[in-house]
Amino acid sequence: KLPDCWRFKQWYQRRVRGDVESPNKPDMTLKPISPLVCIEYNPKDPHCLVGGQYNGQLAFWDTRKGSQPIEVSAISNSHSDPLYKCIFLTSKTGTECFTTSTDGQVLWWDIRKMAEPTETLVLDITKKGKPTLGGISLEYEPTMPTKFMVGTEQGIVLSCNRKAKTPAERIVANFSGHYGPVYALQRNPFFPKNFLTVGDWTARIWSEDLRESSIMWTKFHKSYLTDGCWSPVRPAVFFTSRMDGCLDVWDYMFKQNDPTLSLQVCDDALNCLRIQDHGSLMACGSHSGNVTLLELSESLSQQQRNEKASVTQIFERETKREKILESRYREMKLKERAKSQQGEDKSGEDDEENAEELIEEADKNFWFTVEQEKIGIEKKEKEAEQ
User: Fold this and answer.
1) Which of 222, 187, 176, 221 is nearest to 203 (CA)?
2) Is 141 helix (H, G, I), strand (E, B) or coil?
3) Which residues lie closer than 8 Å to 95 by C-beta, 6 or more apart?
4) Residue 94 — left, alpha, or beta (φ > 0 → left; ψ -120 to 50 → alpha)?
5) Average pLDDT of the chain?
6) CA angle 187-190-194, nearest 5°?
7) 239 Cβ contact partners less than 8 Å away, ≥ 6 residues apart
8) Who's near 353: CB < 8 A, 6+ residues apart?
């Protein structure tokens, strides 16, 4: 089967004018050498695309010049596994991109000369120089051009710095919390320090300040999650897709334990999501190859009053809570170590009671902090009213 490429922007413009004559007919069909796994538009030139192929090669198209790729990376210098993600970088030329694969490498390319990659990074957290993790997803924020993140098939997220002095220093930190591949990875557009990951049966929100655990997470769904993304206009809203064909809309301003809306888009698995820059339209791709275009309500596509300030408080509160629990857990471990060195034996029941006491104390400290913050906010509101 040949992958079909819809010009989403033009389709949207025609949709608004009510001028769609044949919504099921693609504008163009791209013809790669090997099946496409991912595809990405050049943000500086909507006619140019790069696609990651199943055989590990990177292909480059210019839609003005036909459906065949203009250039393809040399197979000897490409990935040895399927190329799962490619992203264009912010540069003067607008021709640079980087890719990742389960072969354990991140490669940088210039589409003007694709004979070989310009740079290579091996995903190795053991510092031995051999790939130990396989890449599935990438995250790149233009406001932080030297930083990027990699989601791996082992459930670990790597935070990296492209301009580090040595290859070993390029991998700055790792975040572990999923039981399977990290299929989606994206920073919050309003709070770049916080990022969303989707894998196994949950979606998780992380803070760069905490490496031991995520600060917020969804419930474990019965069906596997396949993709996710933040709303570009509402900092408290994100979306996730599931293997059972459902699209979940999460709005943390409304509720946090359950989705605000669950929509059965189709009977097949939803494999991918892509939201429009204005936040009013969303495209969902299914396992059967169908694309469903959804229009979001105004409440989901327009920022609410004081939403940014409220989300700031939520993220800070949850980060504080996790830091308290993390510090208590470390204290408990240090006490256990000290006692074992002194030769003091403790039963498993005593350890459980000690852990419960520490968690209870941390919980009390957390809610005390929340109450103090509430009192402070109420005082400020009363002063503002006066």
Assistant:
1) 221
2) coil
3) 42, 110, 111, 112
4) left
5) 86
6) 40
7) 228, 229, 231, 247, 248, 249, 250, 273, 275, 282
8) none
Cα–Cα distance measured from residue 195 to residue 235, given in angstroms and rounded to the nearest whole number: 11
Q: Which residues are CB-neighbours of 104 under 8 A, at least 6 positions away?
A: 122, 123, 124, 130, 131, 132, 133, 134, 135
Write down the pLDDT at residue 105: 94
Tokens of 198: 């989707």
Angle, in degrees to the nearest 10, between helices 307-341 and 348-385 = 150
Query: What CA–CA distance (Å, rounded) separates 90 from 96?
Result: 8
CB 273 within 8 A of CB 301: no
Is residue 146 within 8 Å of residue 159, measured between CB atoms? no
User: For the residues 244-250, what does the mean pLDDT come to?
Assistant: 96
Confirm if 28 and 48 have CB atoms less than 8 A apart.
no
Residue with tokens 């189709």: 266
- Tell how strand 45-53 and strand 171-176 pair up: unpaired
Q: What tokens does 304 get?
A: 């609410």
Q: What is the pLDDT of residues 55-113, one digit of tens each?
A: 999 999 999 999 999 999 999 999 999 999 999 998 888 899 999 999 999 999 999 99
pLDDT at 198: 97
Query: Tens digits of per-residue pLDDT, 176-199?
Result: 989 999 999 999 999 999 999 999
pLDDT at 180: 92
How many Å apart are CA 135 and CA 123, to the nearest integer? 8
